[in-house]
Description:
The chain is an alpha/beta fold.
Amino acid sequence: MRQTTIVTHKKVDKKWYVVDAEGQVLGRLASLCATYLRGKNKPTFTPNVDMGDNIIVINADKIILTANKENNKIYYHHSGYPGGLKTTTPAELRKRRPIAIIEKAVKGMIPHTKLGAKQFKNLYVYAGAEHRHEAQKPEKLEVR
């Protein structure tokens, strides 16, 4: 009889990966990052344990949005007051805070729970080519 292996948070080995977002399509990059943040790429995936790896995304300001989404896509948020619906486009967001485009895309692809919030903290996004995690010796991860 086979036995299901249950992995606890003590047995998880986390790796560090760096992804270059220059010239990459937003959805494909976000999907890859969400998969690695959750740990679904590992054969011992357990849904209720933070098994995910740490992901560093560099060159976030050079991400590509297809089909004129740069101007047509709309991000919404509400201030909490009556009539407080705010809208912004990726073009406006790229000028103010270019890392927010990738963060919003990845955050929407992981569970909206306490565990998902914990996994999201393992994502580090930088607008330029420099990052401050060289001591962790991250491996390069290719987007297909």
